[in-house]
Amino acid sequence: MEKIDNITPIISRDFNSNAYIFNDVIVDPGTPSNIDYLLENIKLAGLSIDNINKIVNTHCHFDHTGADEYLQKEFGLEVYLHKLDADAIIRRDGEETVASHFGCAVPDIDVKIIEEGDKFYDFEVIHTPGHTHGSICLYNGQSLISGDTVFSGGSFGRTDFKTGSQSDLNKSLKRLTELDVSNLFSGHGPYVEANANQHICLI
Questions:
Q1: Could you tell me if 103 and 79 are in contact, meaning their C-beta atoms sit under 8 angstroms apart?
Q2: Residues in the chain with pLDDT < 70?
Q3: Which of 21, 49, 75, 187 could form a disulfide with 8 if both were Cys (CB 3.0 to 4.6 A apart)?
Q4: What's residue 148's pLDDT?
Q5: DSSP line for 75-97
Q6: How far apart are CA 46 and CA 111, in angstroms?
């Protein structure tokens, strides 16, 4: 399993989000149905779940956060979300987290708050509302972990879920076009290695 710019991608199956690992951080581990697949691929990458200490969620939707509860309770991982989306988890809002769309309960987790400008190693948190009002991207000057804000080929996230806003998303996408992005690691679909600006600027 290749590593790109110190990022190990684990490409999703079914409806789960892609997961990305750097240092002791995993981004968006997916749903509970993804746990065995996730743990298997962590081992295949030559990594150990015991060396991962943090989950950073790009937003609160269940296909990204559903596995958080197991990983926190079984391995003690800290969970980080933007304050606006963390509120939906804390209130156990099945509609806002779309957990109810999956017929599941909102993850019962302790959440730590992150905001614009916070850093995880070389990656800085960029608040990119639109898909949800607390969506974030992570950017290290070369690679962008974009959640469901923008995907390869210039497509972008839905805004018809609770707290989604096309107006906010347009502003967030414009902001991303101003970054110098070589590699794009999105929440679903293939990642882009090199010249990712071309995909973002297709918007």
A1: no
A2: 1, 202-203
A3: 21
A4: 97
A5: H--EEEEEHHHHHHHHTT-TTTT
A6: 28
Q: Is the dihedral of CA 14, 186, 162, 115 positive or negative?
A: positive
CA dist 103 and 41 (Å) reads 26
pTM of the complete model:
0.96
Q: Under a CB-based contact definition with an 8 Å cutoff, are residues 114 and 136 in contact?
A: yes
Q: How far apart are CA 156 and CA 153, in angstroms?
A: 9
Contact (Cβ atoms closer than 8 angstroms) between residue 60 and residue 89:
yes
pLDDT reported for residue 203: 58
What would the pLDDT profile of 43-80 be if each residue is shown by its tens digit?
A: 999 999 999 999 999 999 999 999 999 999 999 999 99
Spell 22-58 as b/e; 16+ CB within 10 A means b: beebbbbbbbbbbbebbbebbeeeebeeeebeebbbb
pLDDT of residue 84: 98
| 124 contacts 142 by C-beta, under 8 angstroms | no
pLDDT value of position 110: 98
Residue count of the chain, please give it: 203
Residue written as tokens 């979300």?
81
